[in-house]
Structure formats: structure tokens, C-alpha cells
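Exercise 7. Given the encoded structure of a 439-residue chain, write a plausible sequence.
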């Protein structure tokens, strides 16, 4: 039986046109992270499953993790997210390095999910995290960096918004006001996390299974109807839990100095499915009616390092996935056309005895940082332009029998269709012509 040519379900082959899109996105991600002084890091593809058992949450562990027992009887998993690896790495060095620690990475992650629009089994995810930042400032910086990634890709506030909540608010409501036990609180969190993905009837059914008192049902419904930062502050005050909004209010005082306010919306349904979040939580959401989904998720986690018996160093960060981001860019028509490669020049000759000149000229240009594609055999005039077009070159260098004899070259700007003959000795003149052809 012939083998399938398709990639494994939920993964992608990145043919050059798709890889060009991905490279473009990653370059912007990296540039934005570096603009805030974030340093690049990476970790292993495999981790012991215990690392995720500690704090990642039951959905990830029970349904989504790719795990196996290795030859040494260790139970390992392909990383489904980067935060536990990051926390493990930070736990090794946090005592020695000055705070805050600002790191970023673009790892590929694997989750066993049902492949659909926006969800695959392998995705890449920009992770930016800051450790040891003062309360509120770390959150504002991380969100500002996230906004800048979107802006650098051509998006504006009409394309996306940042939905914000605070787990301290939700904790205070459930624990102190509604006096729920840990198990019920855990279930209620999971219900809220799913609330946008299910119908109101399904939500009602899930909640009724928790047997909440009518007073608590009322409080829960009131909570889910909150629509602004002011409304949540007032509501928690009414519940005698004003303290739980202090950090949120502090963050909101800092946010305007980073021009964040136009992007922020309070959303009571944002609690995040991962268990380690303890403070501000957020998701970037696509505003296009055809693509209403989370593009990015993150938040503050104060005690993840405790699983390594280390003192708690507060962290804040986000994960921005390439699958959802690519859908976002394409739906809003923000993705440039990468169907063709981009090169500076295509060089060809028409006679066998010009081939060595083609190669030496190409080498000179490459040493001057140009992207150069050469024909490896003599070409007919028509074919030269056909191949130049396919190579994505902005200009063409052609050597016919006269040029080969005189050690000259005809350079043609493919956009303006202008052409000039240059001596092969005059590299700087050639360079000027080719660079101008970039347009
Ligand atoms: P997450 O919400 O699980 O958070 O994932 C963050 C983003 O990764 C999602 O909003 C989505 O864009 C993308 N993503 C997740 N799963 C898939 C999938 N199966 N297919 C395509 N894209 C996906 C985390 O992973 C946290 N560790 C982020 C974080 C970093 N929090 C603090 N620092």
C-alpha cells in the first residue's frame, strides 16, 4: 500500500509560500519582543508529564496531551504549552539574575484536539513573559507588547480587542461571598471558561448541576452580566469584596500611560482554562464577525515556581498562536502576498561559455548582501524573463555573446522595464542599479 502524502492530522507542511508567511509573522513578533528588551530562550520538546500535572489543568492533561513512556520508563509528553518549561527554567536562575526577567520564545506545541478552523494539533506560539515586575506594571507592559505585535502586523483597534478579568475578583466572589467549597469553585471556573462556546441553555444546565442556592444563582447571573470595569468595581463593593478589585484598579491607573485603554474591555467570562493563573487574566479577541475567537491568552501567575520548592516569583505573560493569528490576518486582508519568493536579481547567460561569468558576478553581489538566483544553464531570451518572474527577482542580469566577449552585463529593472549595460568591473554601479530596482 502506498504511503499517504498528507502530513499527520492537525499538522501542516510549510511549503515555501506558507513558510514565507510564517517567517514574516515571526519576524514581527521577534522585533516587538526585542523592542521591549525581551530575550530569546528555548526549551526541550519533551518534558516529564508531572510538570504539567502540577498546574496546567485537567483538560490539557486528560484530553490534549501527547504522552508516552520512554525506554527508561519515564512518562513524558510533547510540550502542549511553554509556561511550565519556562517556570522550570526560571526556577534554576531567578536567584542570580536581576529582576524583572523578560523572556520570549516561539515554540511549536502539540495538543490532541479536533482539527478545525483556528485549532490544530501542532501550532507555534509567541510566548512573552515577565517575572518579578511590580504589581500592575508587568501586566501593562505585557499587554502593551501584545498590542504592538498586532500593530506591527498592520492591525488597528477596529480589528481586535483585549478582554480583561481578574481571578482575584472571581475568587473573592466564589469563596468569600458565595461561600462555595473548592470543588464547586473549580467546576464553576470550568463552566465560565466554556460559557462563550456553549448555548445559554447548556450553560444553565451545567450550572444547575452544581445545586447553587437561589441567592448564589442570582449573584452568579449578576456577575455574568457585568459589562464594564466600573460595573465590576461597584458589584464587588456591594458584595463587601472591594479589596479584590484593588489590583485591577491599580492596573487601570497605569494602562492609559501605555495607550492601552482603547483596546481594553471588561469580560466576566474570561477566567482562562489553565489552573496557574492567580491575578489579571486576558484574551485578545478577533472583532471580525466571521472569525470571532481568541487569538491569544495570558495572565498573571504568582506561585508557579512553588512547584519547584522555590520562593514565588510573580510572572505575567501571554501565548499568541500562529494558526489563529494567520486566520485573523487573512480575514482582515492584512496578510501581504507571499505567493512568490522575493529576490533581488536573476542572472543568466545565453551561451555555454558565459556560465562561469554568471557565477562570479553572482558571488560578488552576494558578498554585498543581495539575494541572487542564477540560471545553471544557458537560456533563451524568453525563458530568462519567465524564470526571473518565477524567482521573484526585481531585476535581471543577462549576458549574451557580446556581453560575454566584452565582460559586460545588461541589467534590467523589471518594474520600470529600463535597462543599462555595465562593465562587470564596475560592481558599485551594478549595485546601485539593482538596489534601485527594489523600488
Ligand atoms: P492558551 O490559551 O492555552 O494559553 O493558548 C494561547 C493561544 O495559543 C490561544 O489563544 C491560541 O491562539 C493558541 N492555541 C492554543 N491551542 C491551540 C491549538 N490547538 N491550535 C491552534 N492554536 C492554539 C497558553 O498556552 C499559556 N501557556 C499562555 C501563557 C504564556 N500564559 C502565560 N504565559
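Solution.
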Amino acid at each position: 500500500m502506498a504511503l499517504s502524502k498528507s502530513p499527520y492530522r492537525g499538522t501542516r507542511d510549510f511549503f515555501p509560500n506558507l513558510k514565507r508567511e510564517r517567517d514574516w509573522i515571526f519576524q514581527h513578533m521577534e522585533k516587538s519582543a526585542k523592542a521591549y528588551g525581551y530575550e530569546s530562550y528555548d526549551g526541550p520538546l519533551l518534558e516529564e508529564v508531572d510538570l504539567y500535572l502540577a498546574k496546567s489543568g485537567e483538560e490539557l492533561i486528560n484530553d490534549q496531551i501527547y504522552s508516552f513512556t520512554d525506554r527508561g520508563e519515564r512518562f513524558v509528553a510533547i510540550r502542549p504549552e511553554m509556561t511550565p518549561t519556562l517556570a522550570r527554567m526560571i526556577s534554576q536562575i531567578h536567584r542570580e539574575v536581576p529582576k524583572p526577567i523578560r523572556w520570549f520564545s516561539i515554540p511549536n506545541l502539540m495538543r490532541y484536539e479536533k482539527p478545525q478552523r483556528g485549532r490544530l494539533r501542532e501550532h507555534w506560539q509567541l510566548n512573552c513573559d515577565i517575572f518579578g515586575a511590580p504589581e500592575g506594571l508587568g501586566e501593562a507592559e505585557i499587554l502593551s507588547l501584545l498590542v504592538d505585535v498586532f500593530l506591527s502586523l498592520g492591525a488597528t483597534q477596529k480589528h481586535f480587542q483585549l478582554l480583561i478579568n481578574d481571578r482575584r475578583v472571581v475568587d473573592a466572589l466564589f469563596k468569600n461571598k458565595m461561600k462555595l467549597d473548592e470543588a464547586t469553585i473549580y467546576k464553576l471556573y470550568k463552566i465560565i471558561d466554556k460559557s462563550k462556546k456553549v448555548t445559554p441553555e447548556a450553560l444553565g444546565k451545567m450550572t444547575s448541576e452544581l445545586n447553587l442556592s437561589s441567592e448564589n444563582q442570582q449573584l452568579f447571573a449578576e456577575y455574568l452580566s457585568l459589562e464594564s470595569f466600573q460595573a465590576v468595581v461597584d458589584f464587588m463593593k456591594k458584595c463587601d469584596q472591594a479589596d479584590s478589585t484593588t489590583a485591577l484598579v491599580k492596573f487601570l491607573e497605569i494602562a492609559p500611560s501605555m495607550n492601552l485603554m482603547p483596546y481594553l474591555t471588561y469580560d466576566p467570562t474570561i477566567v482562562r482554562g489553565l489552573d496557574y493563573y492567580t491575578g489579571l487574566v486576558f484574551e485578545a479577541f478577533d472583532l471580525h464577525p466571521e472569525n470571532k475567537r481568541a487569538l491569544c491568552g495570558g495572565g498573571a501567575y504568582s506561585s508557579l515556581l512553588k512547584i519547584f520548592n522555590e520562593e514565588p516569583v510573580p510572572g505575567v505573560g501571554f501565548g499568541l498562536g500562529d494558526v489563529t493569528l494567520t486566520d485573523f490576518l487573512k480575514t482582515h486582508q492584512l496578510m501581504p502576498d507571499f505567493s512568490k519568493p522575493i529576490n533581488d536579481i536573476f542572472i543568466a547567460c545565453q551561451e555555454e561559455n558565459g556560465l562561469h561569468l554568471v557565477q562570479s558576478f553572482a558571488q560578488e553581489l552576494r558578498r554585498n548582501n543581495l539575494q541572487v538566483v542564477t540560471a545553471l544553464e544557458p537560456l533563451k531570451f524568453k525563458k530568462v524573463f519567465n524564470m526571473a518572474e518565477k524567482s521573484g527577482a526585481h531585476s535581471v542580469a543577462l549576458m549574451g555573446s557580446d556581453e560575454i566577449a566584452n565582460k559586460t552585463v545588461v541589467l534590467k529593472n523589471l518594474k520600470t522595464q529600463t535597462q543599462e549595460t555595465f562593465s562587470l568591473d564596475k560592481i558599485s554601479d551594478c549595485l546601485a542599479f539593482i538596489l534601485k530596482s527594489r523600488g
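Remark. The radius of gyration is 28 Å. Students should compare their own answers with the one above.
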